[in-house]
Write a structure and sequence with these properties.
Strand content: 5-15%
Number of helices: 2
Shape: elongated
Structural class: alpha+beta
Largest sheet: 2 strands, antiparallel
Radius of gyration: 13 Å
Strand order of the largest sheet: 1-2
Order of helices and strands: HEEH
Number of strands: 2
Length: 60
């Protein structure tokens, strides 16, 4: 397994993007996300998603 395989999150883990409102709230900042309100699980807005990716990124 390469480092890239280990560090990337498969697309199947992420929820499908919503076609339109209503959107789910971000669990960190409560801003609207790109995910449907009906999605069950942790949803993050694009900003928090990017910040979380930075925190958890592999450090070679």
């Amino acid at each position: 397994m390469s480092d890239e395989d280990y560090c990337t999150i498969p697309e199947t883990v992420k929820p499908a993007k919503a076609d339109g409102p209503p959107y789910a709230e971000c669990v960190l900042c409560r801003e609207p996300t790109e995910y449907p309100e009906s999605y069950k699980g942790i949803t993050l807005c694009p900003v928090c998603e990017w910040q979380e990716a930075q925190r958890t990124a592999c450090s070679g």
